[in-house]
Amino acid sequence: MFKIFISYIFLCCFLFAHAEEYGSSTGWKLPRFVSLKSDEVNVRVGPGTKYPIVVKYTVKNLPVEIIGENNNWRKTKDIEGNEGWILEALLQGDRFGITNQSYNESVQIYSHPKGKVVGKIGKNNVVKVNHCLSNWCKIKYAKHSGWINKENLWGIYENEEFNISFFQPIINQMWKIKF
Fold first, then answer.
1. 33, 64 in Cβ contact below 8 A?
2. Which of 5, 109, 112, 156 stands 20 to 30 A from 71 (CA)?
3. Coil/strand/helix, residue 77
4. pLDDT in tens, 113-132
């Protein structure tokens, strides 16, 4: 009986350790990335307008990470580690990223993953992320688009893939890349 009890405790601990967290208001996975809907967004100490403003964002489409929920407020974290609460109506699900290389050189933009270089982009630019494969994301910046290595973007998780075409395996073969 004691062995069964210990096994049960071990199983419960294992399951809780590997359980994913979901938002109490939306039921969506936490954490997750979203972007700012406006170029004037206040970040507050707590979930409500009575709380003081900690940071004021002035860049539309800036990506932030939702790390908590409280009714119609979302606890967020930005690229610099600032945390606070933003009203849900000021956030959107459109995916954007910030070029975030660890060196001073510009990030190269490729025609396709491991393809030829078609442009460069500097650090801390906000880019639209159209879709991501295992190591690469297709971005749009101003009137230019191309592929950027995922390690140079903040606003995308390391193992995250999204908006992948049904035909992507065929396209990968055409590009002769291995994922």
1. yes
2. 156
3. strand
4. 888 999 999 989 999 999 99
